Amino acid sequence: MVWTKRAKFILVAAFLSLGLLIIQFVSFSFRYQAIAGFTVLTYILSAWVLYEEMIGIHWIMCLILPCTYMAGVALFYFLLPEKMILRFLIILGFSVGMYAILLTENILSIASTKTIQLLRAGQAVGFLMTLIAAFFIFDTIFSFKFSPWNNGLLIMIASFPLYLQSVWTIKLSKVFEKDLITYSVILALISGELGMAISFWPLSILIASLFLVAFFYVSMGLLQHKLSGKLFENTYKEYLQIAIVVLVITYIMAGWGGR
Predict the structure, then answer these.
(1) d(CA 134, CA 156)
(2) pLDDT at residue 3, rounded to an integer
């Protein structure tokens, strides 16, 4: 029996969803090791289904999102109330999301070597799944209630690979260009600083996480327009307005005065 590529994507997504369920039955003292193990397994299985189009830099860039998505959802899964229907919905959503990610990475790996019509759709879906993965990871970090300094450091570290693959999807370079690393480091550093600063505000974990996701959206939106030569004044103003609205809403949602 010859498996089609889409069938392999479904198989891997289903298998990893089963793994996500199995992790919940692992002893608490070994859960983080289990998550790390399944994240490594995600890399291996994703590489297996994508290898036909993989060359050079693809072995890193095309596999960052599947791995961070797996790790983010697995960590977030522990924070949910122990309601079967809710956990079932998360697993179902995870499987659909993983399938979409594998399909997207396949499109991007092909588009880096030849022109295809699905590139824009792949970039859009990939960016959406990156935002979702970022939210899960940020929410988990804030949930541990570390000090603001540790929050900033962890957010910076977690943000870097997400920015790295997001910046790469804009130009789909075949090598590690200097700008790719520079932009990723700068944006990750700013995210870490914002994460540290927002930790001093009396915010709920949800709002703090959404604030950082909003910054990810705005910063990558501006960078995408810049690198594509389409960062006009109106575009800049639109993103600036979004940033101001998000900041104002975040300030209003803060529990100032012990509210």
Answers:
(1) 11
(2) 65
Cα–Cα–Cα angle for 175, 62, 162, rounded to 5 degrees: 90
What's the pTM? Answer: 0.92
- Answer positive or negative: Cα dihedral of 208, 214, 219, 224: positive
Dihedral over Cα of 157, 161, 164, 169: its sign: negative
User: Distance between CA atoms of 1 and 86, rounded to whole angstroms?
Assistant: 36
Domain positions in the chain are 1-116, 142-259
Tens of pLDDT, residue by residue over 136-174, are: 999 999 999 999 999 999 999 999 999 999 999 988 888
Q: Look up tokens 């959406």; give the residue.
A: 128
Long-range contacts of 240-248 (CB under 8 A, 24+ apart): 242/214, 242/217, 242/218, 243/214, 243/215, 243/218, 246/211, 246/214, 246/215, 246/218
Percent of all residues in the chain with a pLDDT value above 70, rounded to a whole number: 97
Instruction: Evaluate whether 127 touches 69 at the Cβ level (below 8 Å).
Output: no
Chain-wide mean pLDDT for the chain?
88
Residue 257: its pLDDT value, please?
Answer: 63
| In contact, 162 and 127? CB cutoff 8 Å | no
Question: How big is the chain, counted in residues?
Answer: 259
DSSP 3: P
Position 238: which residue type? Answer: E
Task: Give which of 147, 258, 254, 142 is closest to 201, Cα–Cα.
Answer: 254
Q: 216 near 165, Cβ under 8 Å? A: no
